[in-house]
Amino acid sequence: MKRSGKPIAQQFNLSLLSAVPATISQDKQKELKLALIELLTDAVCPSQDEREDRGGEDESQTHR
């Protein structure tokens, strides 16, 4: 088998089984859930301002 000319990068395999779960308060969990929902919603449905920044809904028609 040929060896690559590239240097071998060191890889660290971290065990997920030995990780200690973080303890998060109920209030913080709720806050994080709401923030995640907001991020996902904004990613799927950008606001009107963001659509206008990218040229609006009819941008493809302007180049005809």
Give an overview in words:
The chain is an all-alpha fold and 64 residues long. It has a domain at 26-55. Helix content is 39%, strand content 0%. It has 2 helices and no strands. The radius of gyration is 23 Å and the shape is flat. The termini are far apart. The mean pLDDT is 77.
Structural class: mainly alpha
Taking all residues together, what is the mean pLDDT? 77
Distance between the amino and carboxyl termini: 56 Å
Total number of strands = 0
| Number of discrete helical segments | 2
Shape: flat
Helix content: 25-40%
Percent strand equals under 5%
Give a short account of the largest sheet: none
What is this structure, in a nutshell?
The chain has two helices and no strands. It is mostly helical.
